[in-house]
Amino acid sequence: MTAYPLRPIGHVESSLKDRAAAPRQADEGAPDAWLVLGDEYLPAVDGLAPGTDVLLLTWLDRADRDTLAVRPRGDTARPVTGVFATRSPDRPNPIGLHTVHILSVAGPRIHVRNLEALDGTPILDIKPILTSDR
Length: 134
Known about the structure:
Blueprint: E1 10-13, E2 33-37, H1 42-45, E3 53-59, E4 69-70, E5 81-82, E6 95-106, E7 109-113, E8 122-128
Antiparallel strand pairs: 1-2, 1-8, 2-7, 3-6, 3-8, 4-5, 6-7
């Protein structure tokens, strides 16, 4: 198969350091965090504003890429399920998908609400959530 190399555009700064202690989803107590982009991406930040919700794509660099099936949420009472039917971070291409709310923008740093990504997680992209007015 063809390889498609990815280049991180930045990283997450968060109080979350340990995967075992991190919430599984943003609405389960995820803290505010900073998206720290490389200075060369400053022109790409133009148009992002406080109060906006965006999709954040990350590379879950501490995930197990060999995992193909899991018990959802680690619950032994649930049946083993293929990772493509779950939100498990362990998967062949561990791309994280997060909806975050922008609190502030300071140059190449973006302060966001409720991000469950660990400190140092590479950022792949930021995309607007499309609405009828866009």
